[in-house]
Amino acid sequence: MMTKDQYIESLKKLNFNLYVFGEKVENPTENPIMRPSLNSFAATYELAEDPQYEDLMTATSHLTGHKINRFTHMHQSTDDLVKKVKMQRLLGQKTAACFQRCVGMDAMNAVYSSTFEIDEACGTKYHENFVKFLTRVQDEDLGVDGAMTDVKGDRSLSPSQQADPDLFLHVVERTADGVYVTGAKAHQTGYINSHEVLVMPTIAMREGDEDYAISFAVPTDSDGITLIYGRQSCDTRKIEEYNDIDVGNKVYGGHEVLVIFDHVFVPNDRIFLNGEIKFAGMIVERFAGYHRQSYGGCKVGVGDVLIGATALAGDMAGSAKASHVKDKLIEMTHLNETLYCCGIACSSQGTKTKSGNYLIDLLLANVCKQNVTRFPYEIARLAQDLAGGLMVTLPSEADYRNPKLHDYIDKYCRGVASVPTEDRMRVLRLIENMTMGTAAVGYLPESMHGAGSPQAQRIMIARQSNLEMKKELAKKIARID
Ligand code: SF4
Ligand code: FE
């Protein structure tokens, strides 16, 4: 396995065509806007080095028998699925941000089982291709970004019916050695912190969509790929002169990138689906299922930090003993642990796929994610309720550092006399960051739309709900023939 430092060094060798704020970025690992997200991703390496987290952070490869990072593991049991969620909660607690590496883990587990079944039905060799790729990922401890979401254009039209053929990523040229692809993948979490990108189709496909039913992996800095970094609320606070207190979470963060593929070459042995339209939906459903499970871990860990920050804000304001404050903290905990229950439940009820790795219970994973589209918003609302208006009206750090203003701010922004004002500012800025700033991107809209928007879960819940069986139960009790 790579150490944290080896991982960061390995990223420096990547040669991205990356832009932010209209400028090309030469050293993303040193860029102050980007560095916090690298630190979060690097935590997946750092914690794996720590013996106290060995059981959660590492696993034994079923391919080689080697000790590997759990983020590259194919889940071999329901216990592995449960440990995955616990690992994600741990990392959420340590970073209070999106640590990004789960997307690849979820994509690899989905493609692993799907390619096995595609080969069985179609006589293809995708699973062999994928196992070769996976073995390298495990042995070299690579970061992999799973790329599913196409930009999709007109939602009422299928991929091949779009006015612009590139709105879903597709094959534009076929040669004896491989294929060339063009299109874009949106909202790509962790892309510039990853060595490889594993591309999957974004929806179930119909006849005529064959060129769009494509899955493959290529290095993230392949020729023909252009990256545009997504800006986040309050991101430029990171490049202000005083950028300690006001950023809230200074060390960690997350990022998303618009990834544009312009005639990118994919060699034959890196292709995992190529025209088999009826299997596109299987990959989508399994990837989405795994990532909906993931949120029952990562968002819970981030929620733990927000609950802690809210409780601290109460202590610092002298309101901790008020019964409504205690009750709101209980409510936040109840909501957060409900998400964890869902993450653990869909894991413990997982089943073995034909390929041998384990898949979560899809109904419970979709229920998990549906709750995630709601509860973090309520937790954030309660955090803002208890934090008070000062969270958004506090003077800036620059004012606090100005000798003419420092003592005024120190005096008038203080709560409990024994607590330094600066500590109070730090906690309130952290709550601001997590509910409205850069970290809110990961905690709120990503809870809504990541791993699929709420309606996507409702479609899956409808499909898995087995209403006919339930009608039969009712008929029997009501004594209806
Ligand atoms: Fe992992 Fe959560 Fe980020 Fe998805 S949102 S990559 S599950 S930390
Ligand atoms: Fe996500």
**Distinct bound molecules:** iron/sulfur cluster, fe (iii) ion
Number of domains: 2
Q: Reading side by side through the largest sheet, how are the strands ordered?
A: 2-1-10-11-7-6
Please tell me the overall pLDDT.
98
Give the distance, in angstroms, between the N- and C-terminal Cα atoms.
62 Å
Largest sheet: 6 strands, mixed
The amount of helix comes to 40-55%
Question: What is the CA-based Rg, rounded?
Answer: 23 Å
Give structural notes.
There is one protein chain. The protein is of the alpha+beta class. The protein has 18 helices and 14 strands. The chain has two domains: 4-278, Butyryl-CoA Dehydrogenase, subunit A, domain 2 (Beta Barrel); 283-467, Butyryl-CoA Dehydrogenase, subunit A, domain 3, CATH 1.20.140. Helix content is 50%, strand content 14%. Strand 13 and strand 14 form a beta hairpin. Residues 88, 98-100, 102-103, 189, 294-295, 298, 442, 446, 450 line the site of iron/sulfur cluster. Fe (iii) ion (FE) binds at residues 189, 446, 450-451.
Write the layout of secondary structure elements.
Blueprint: H1 4-12, E1 18-20, E2 23-24, H2 35-49, H3 54-57, E3 58-60, E4 67-69, H4 78-95, H5 102-122, H6 126-140, E5 144-147, E6 170-174, E7 178-189, E8 196-199, E9 214-219, E10 225-229, E11 256-267, E12 271-274, H7 280-317, H8 323-348, E13 351-352, E14 358-359, H9 362-372, H10 375-387, H11 390-393, H12 397-401, H13 403-412, H14 421-436, H15 438-443, H16 445-449, H17 454-464, H18 467-478
Parallel strand pairs: 1-10, 5-8
Antiparallel strand pairs: 1-2, 3-4, 6-7, 7-11, 8-9, 9-12, 10-11, 13-14
Helix pairs in contact: 1-2, 4-7, 4-8, 5-6, 5-7, 7-8, 7-9, 7-10, 7-14, 8-9, 8-10, 9-17, 10-14
The structure holds iron/sulfur cluster and fe (iii) ion.
Fe (iii) ion (FE) binds next to loops.
